[in-house]
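User: Quick sanity check before I run a bigger batch. Here is a single chain. Can you write out its predicted 3D structure?
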Amino acid sequence: MAKNTEISPEQAKYNVGDQVAFTLEKQKFAGIIEKGYTNSFLISFNSDDPAIVDKYHNKVVINNKKLKMIKAAPKKPASKEDE
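Assistant: Done. Predicted structure follows.
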């Protein structure tokens, strides 16, 4: 079966390197998007709670609908190779 590689409108709002906010176990966190999937992102974050660190190891996959943009990553200028 072929993978669905289409990007949803919600997914298109975010890029790798963006700083985002999200809620995890009723606590608010901020993190950086490391990788994008079809409907979610891998986010690295820091926590002072040892239970959260032990359970998630400072990385979590969050659905794109549950993210809030804090700061967009700088855009790379388009190179001539991309054209």
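The two ends are 31 Å apart (CA to CA).

User: Great, the batch can go ahead then.
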